[in-house]
Amino acid sequence: MTMTSKEIRQKFLEYFESKEHLILPSAPLVPKDDPTLLWINAGMAPFKSYFDGRATPPNTRVSNSQKCIRTNDIENVGNTARHHTLFEMLGNFSFGDYFKEEAIKWSYEFLTEEMKLDSSKFWISIYKDDEEAFDIWVNQIGIPKERVVRMGKDENFWEIGTGPCGPCSEIHYDMGADFGCSDDCKFGCECDRYREVWNLVFTQYDLTDDGEYNPLPNKNIDTGMGLERLASIVQGVDTNYETDLFQPITNFIGEHTEFDYQENDDITMAYRVIADHIRGVTFAIGDGVLPSNEGRGYVIRRILRRAVRYAKKLNLKVPFLHKIVPVIVDIMGDVYPEITEKEEQIKKVIKNEAIRFQETLDQGIQILEELIEELDQNNQEIIPGDKVFTLYDTYGFPKELTEEIAKERGYKIDEAGFESAMAEQRARARAAREDHEQDHAETKLFKEIRNEINKPEFVGYTMMESKAD
Ligand code: ATP
Ligand code: MG
Ligand code: MG
Ligand code: MG
């Protein structure tokens, strides 16, 4: 192997340390003091207060490798070579210190000199009016102008409401024509060919309430690069799943199923989804989130249950998924000691949830099959909302799962009907609530585990107590 993911991560941090950055450890996945965010979803997320001036950073230059969860990418997992629920984002940040020129030059230098990537494969996107970025890439770095592409506000301008904002520039790597979705697949296509690797955000404006973009006195840099993607390119493999971050996991799964990783697209997808989802769930539980019916706990429950469903496609025995945890700990436990420390609890939670879900899954699938048959006979294509709700409420079948199975079979679900059934049930539960014994799905074992890991930083528990119906 050319370079291990450990070496890549290490080299990134060392490179920016050599440029006087303070190396900070990854923050937990559960945001601290930020009710607007469910999960830390980018390297800059823990530093928001440094960017908007509410707090003073420990150094004006900072670098990290941050664990992130993005639930908006769940559907992409396994379908693309490059999206995960949990991934690591490598980042360098400037709080009113260096700006565009250094950020671009260092990103280029790191990729070409430290990672030894071939810059003739680079495609650069910039914001259409960012002449400064164009000049740096073309005249200072020497990227041919044909491969520096101007994009609009949607793609290459970062802003959330009013306040600090600015253009960004992204570095993509052309994987070659074999990866294209068609013969005329061009840069800008969403397929796996032109792989987005690194996003450099230049926070240089302050957007006022009147819609004016005023130059910021203190300009900031915020960059983010997916470690798994970078590793796939450096290691010369087709997808993130063939890197050393994932391969031990897929190999381990392979030892327990009769299906080969390459057997067919569905089987490969199942391997990938399981590997991805158990990684995500392992890290989330490691940071104190437990499966439940609300908020973060619901996200974890949904991800875990999705993994159970894919495990069924591989005929994996139940319970099995918890056995993957030590493999993950082996790969990443030294960098993220929290998963090493909580290995046993993580295994217990996954095992318990998987067993419980398998039982309901068998029952739920049968009910869904009957429903579909009934719709078929009546020439209908939409599964009624109240039925979707019953599956969710009584059989523990997440709505998304019903939707997914329905979609596979060419059916839709009545979303609005589901939502109103849900609202009705919430109102009923609120009225009927008598004590604090809230999560009706909670088993005795669950409570034991919860007590075991019920430490002050254990935010998932607090959320469950305060928000569950
Ligand atoms: P994409 O367009 O591929 O979905 P993005 O534009 O949403 O990525 P950014 O928000 O710019 O991603 O994040 C910075 C970097 O983090 C990306 O360039 C990529 O390397 C990595 N990244 C983003 N989302 C994921 C994900 N779901 N899984 C793995 N890596 C990711
Ligand atoms: Mg994205
Ligand atoms: Mg993108
Ligand atoms: Mg991007």
From TrEMBL:
<dbReference type="GO" id="GO:0002161">
    <property type="term" value="F:aminoacyl-tRNA deacylase activity"/>
</dbReference>
<dbReference type="GO" id="GO:0000049">
    <property type="term" value="F:tRNA binding"/>
</dbReference>
<keyword id="KW-0436">Ligase</keyword>
<keyword id="KW-0175">Coiled coil</keyword>
<comment type="similarity">
    <text>Belongs to the class-II aminoacyl-tRNA synthetase family.</text>
</comment>
<dbReference type="GO" id="GO:0005524">
    <property type="term" value="F:ATP binding"/>
</dbReference>
<dbReference type="GO" id="GO:0006419">
    <property type="term" value="P:alanyl-tRNA aminoacylation"/>
</dbReference>
<keyword id="KW-0547">Nucleotide-binding</keyword>
<dbReference type="GO" id="GO:0005829">
    <property type="term" value="C:cytosol"/>
</dbReference>
<dbReference type="GO" id="GO:0008270">
    <property type="term" value="F:zinc ion binding"/>
</dbReference>
<protein>
    <recommendedName>
        <fullName>Alanine--tRNA ligase</fullName>
        <ecNumber>6.1.1.7</ecNumber>
    </recommendedName>
</protein>
<keyword id="KW-0862">Zinc</keyword>
<dbReference type="GO" id="GO:0016740">
    <property type="term" value="F:transferase activity"/>
</dbReference>
<keyword id="KW-0963">Cytoplasm</keyword>
<keyword id="KW-0820">tRNA-binding</keyword>
<dbReference type="GO" id="GO:0004813">
    <property type="term" value="F:alanine-tRNA ligase activity"/>
</dbReference>
<keyword id="KW-0067">ATP-binding</keyword>
<keyword id="KW-0479">Metal-binding</keyword>
<keyword id="KW-0648">Protein biosynthesis</keyword>
<keyword id="KW-0694">RNA-binding</keyword>
<comment type="function">
    <text>Catalyzes the attachment of alanine to tRNA(Ala) in a two-step reaction: alanine is first activated by ATP to form Ala-AMP and then transferred to the acceptor end of tRNA(Ala). Also edits incorrectly charged Ser-tRNA(Ala) and Gly-tRNA(Ala) via its editing domain.</text>
</comment>
<dbReference type="GO" id="GO:0140096">
    <property type="term" value="F:catalytic activity, acting on a protein"/>
</dbReference>
<keyword id="KW-0030">Aminoacyl-tRNA synthetase</keyword>
<feature type="domain" description="Alanyl-transfer RNA synthetases family profile">
    <location>
        <begin position="3"/>
        <end position="469"/>
    </location>
</feature>
